[in-house]
């Protein structure tokens, strides 16, 4: 009997054996491009590359990869080698959100204010105050400019249309008109339009301008701007730091941060999803180059605050004690093909640690998949409230996703903060990002509880809650710490963090929780599609009209503060005499609505929400208010209304007075789908 053995060589199969010939098929180009370390998803050979032999193209691809290590290296056509090699891979953070907006032109109503395009609301109904309609003024070219925070490589611009059927041809440029991102952009009317910036002549900038080319009118509802830096404004955490970790990912290079790196001393960027990372650009402090050495960078799916297990991490790159140039950034390339993970972690083998000074960290790679359950923070943008607050350091800062501003109570016995997870969860872990320097040990006696009760005295916690963790150990400056919940894992809707102390300030940067949702047919979140009010009369006299349209109460953000100069995520209605004010939120179908969760604006003025009637209603029927009842007589900003009524909208009515009336709310609705 004869046996035939075949040895399969993929490259031999698609490229052939003669490297002096051009690649016989497009797959050969892709394979060679990948083998040399460049990204392939969008790669197509151009006319010059098609003239190369296999050997020439292999050498060319290897050269491109080496040149791509330099953040600013360009070819003779001013194209960045980084973008040639790794194509247009973009981060997920919209840099345009809440940015400054400048414009040339005019608008007929605040419903069409240019600032609406950076409010984070994607509703395309022009009657609701989330879009811009900009018209020409005095024969000048209409244009809209967004000024970003910091300087960035602009990689992609996403344009969201209005619900009108308009023909728009646009151009986008960065800083000056000749520095084109793209020209002759035809805007889709039924979906977003994604624009890749391929030919920018300058390396980084903060100003992005959109101009119409047909009739000098601009109709858009939202603009997103993305860079290739997937680290931008992602959570930056550490075992030890003496300053704000967000300094490293804020897009600004004006400040540096001293950190400690060792086996048990680390810093990490949580990318919030699963990525394939190709490399990093790290800015050293040029006056402290001696403190930029002896560390390595890994990718992992393990939270770095857990006990270190090297088998669950993959090395990206190392920085040993060598001479570095005075370039803006020091670039690290991961192994060819990239390294996968959610956490980008810096450590050192030095004992106990190495002092390192860094100014900024940029990471480039591409998105693979959502984070797994164990690494998805349940608390992000969830409603919060506290025993009290010092000045404007309100509890919403615990869940806003920005690890910079801190929550702060008064100096009281057992101060606390509570978080509504808006669902029933089995909790596995709770974490906090703590303050730095001399304030860290204020949180030494922190404890974490899980409960199904909205409001109870901490002194009676044994009757109303389960313990997740108890901490008695001291904190390092700026330490991020993670606790496994006590067994069996507690189940509940509310998390309570408090200090087991007679007199202490409670102030930390951020809270996180990890676990699994337990499906409860009586408590699942309903998608809210729009919100409007009876009279467009402002509730906040010191804020612009466009900042407080009713869509703000369903924008999904946790911010419920009214403070001049800060993003407003609240709305309301102002009426006089015997006129009844109304704000209504709408659903996409009929539901059995069990409960309405309402978050009031801060600073809390009780009279602004007194005598408010909450009612479930059905559209296109004879108006009948099915009144909801307040679950408890809470004096705080977190209110629960019990309804148990069928409807497709919920209205808030201000009743019982003939003076100036003011109501506002930021709320979400658990529901039962009755289909």
What do these coordinates show?
The chain has 675 residues and is mainly β. It has five domains: 10-67, no CATH class; 100-227, Galactose-binding domain-like (Jelly Rolls), CATH 2.60.120; 236-375, Jelly Rolls; 384-517, Galactose-binding domain-like (Jelly Rolls, Sandwich); 524-673, Jelly Rolls (Sandwich), CATH 2.60.120.260. It contains five helices and 36 strands. Strands 26, 27, 29, 30, 31, 32, 33, 35 and 36 form a nine-stranded antiparallel sheet that branches. α2 packs across α3 (54-67). The protein is globular and about 85 Å long. 43% of the residues are buried. Mean pLDDT is 88; it is low at 656-675.
Strand content: 35-45%
Apparent shape? globular
Q: What is the share of helical residues?
A: under 10%
Taking the sheet with the most strands, its summary is: 9 strands, antiparallel
What's the total helix number?
A: 5
Structural class: mainly beta
* CATH architectural label of the largest domain: Sandwich
Distance from first to last alpha carbon = 66 Å
């Amino acid at each position: 009997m004869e046996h035939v053995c075949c040895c399969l060589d993929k490259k031999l199969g698609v490229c052939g054996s003669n490297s002096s010939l051009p690649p016989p098929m497009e797959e050969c180009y892709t394979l060679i491009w990948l083998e040399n370390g460049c990204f392939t998803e969008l790669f197509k050979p151009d006319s010059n590359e098609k003239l190369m032999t296999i050997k020439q193209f292999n050498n060319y691809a290897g050269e491109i990869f080496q040149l791509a290590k330099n953040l600013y290296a360009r070819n003779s056509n001013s194209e960045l080698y980084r973008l040639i090699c790794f194509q247009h891979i973009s981060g997920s953070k919209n840099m345009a959100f809440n940015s400054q907006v400048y414009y040339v032109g005019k608008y007929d109503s605040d419903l069409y204010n240019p600032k609406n395009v950076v409010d984070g609301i994607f509703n395309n109904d022009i009657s609701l105050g989330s879009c811009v309609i900009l018209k020409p003024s005095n024969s000048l070219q209409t244009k809209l400019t967004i000024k970003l925070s910091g300087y960035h490589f602009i990689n992609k611009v996403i344009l969201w249309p209005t619900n009108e059927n308009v023909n728009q041809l646009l151009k986008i440029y960065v800083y000056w008109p000749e520095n084109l991102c793209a020209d002759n952009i035809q805007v889709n009317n039924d979906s977003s339009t994604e624009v890749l910036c391929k030919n920018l002549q300058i390396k980084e900038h903060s100003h992005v301008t959109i101009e119409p080319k047909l009739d000098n009118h601009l109709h858009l509802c939202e603009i997103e701007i993305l860079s290739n830096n997937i680290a931008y404004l992602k959570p930056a955490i550490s075992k030890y730091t003496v300053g704000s970790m967000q300094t490293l990912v804020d897009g600004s290079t004006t400040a540096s941060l001293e950190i400690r790196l060792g086996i048990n001393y680390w810093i990490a960027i949580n990318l919030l999803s699963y990525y394939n990372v190709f490399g990093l650009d790290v800015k050293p402090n040029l006056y402290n180059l001696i403190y930029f050495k002896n560390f390595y960078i890994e990718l992992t799916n393990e939270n770095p605050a857990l006990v270190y297990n090297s088998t669950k991490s993959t090395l990206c790159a190392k920085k040993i004690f060598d001479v570095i140039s005075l370039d803006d950034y020091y670039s690290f390339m991961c192994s060819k093909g990239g390294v996968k993970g959610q956490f980008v972690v810096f450590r050192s083998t030095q004992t106990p640690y190495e002092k390192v000074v860094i100014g900024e960290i940029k990471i480039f790679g591409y998105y693979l998949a959502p984070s797994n359950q164990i690494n998805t923070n349940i608390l992000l943008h969830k409603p919060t409230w506290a025993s009290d607050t010092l000045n404007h350091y309100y509890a919403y800062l615990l869940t806003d996703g920005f690890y910079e501003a801190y929550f702060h109570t008064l100096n009281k016995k057992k101060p606390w903060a509570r978080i509504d997870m808006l669902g029933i969860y089995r909790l596995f872990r709770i974490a906090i990002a703590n303050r730095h320097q001399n304030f860290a040990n204020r949180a030494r006696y922190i404890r974490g509880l899980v409960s199904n009760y909205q409001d109870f005295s901490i002194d009676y916690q044994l009757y109303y809650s389960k313990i997740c963790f108890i901490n008695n150990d001291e904190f390092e400056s700026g330490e991020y710490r993670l606790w496994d919940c006590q067994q069996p894992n507690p189940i509940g809707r509310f998390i309570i963090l408090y200090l087991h102390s007679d007199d202490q300030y409670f102030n930390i940067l951020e809270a996180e929780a990890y676990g699994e949702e337990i499906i409860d047919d009586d408590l699942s979140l309903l998608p809210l599609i729009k919100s409007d009010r009876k009279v467009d009369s402002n509730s906040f006299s010191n804020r612009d009209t466009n900042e407080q349209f009713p869509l703000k109460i369903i924008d999904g953000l946790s911010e419920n503060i009214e403070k001049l100069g800060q993003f407003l995520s609240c709305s309301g209605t102002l009426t006089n005499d015997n006129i009844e004010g109304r704000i209504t939120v709408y659903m996409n179908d009929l539901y059995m609505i069990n409960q309405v969760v309402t978050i009031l604006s801060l600073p809390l003025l009780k009279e602004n929400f007194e005598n408010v009637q909450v009612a479930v209603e059905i559209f296109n029927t004879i108006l009948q208010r099915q009144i909801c009842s307040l679950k408890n007589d809470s004096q705080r900003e977190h209110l629960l209304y019990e309804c148990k009524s069928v409807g497709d909208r919920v209205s808030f009515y201000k009743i019982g007075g003939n003076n100036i009336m003011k109501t506002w709310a930021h709320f979400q609705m658990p529901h039962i789908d009755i289909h």
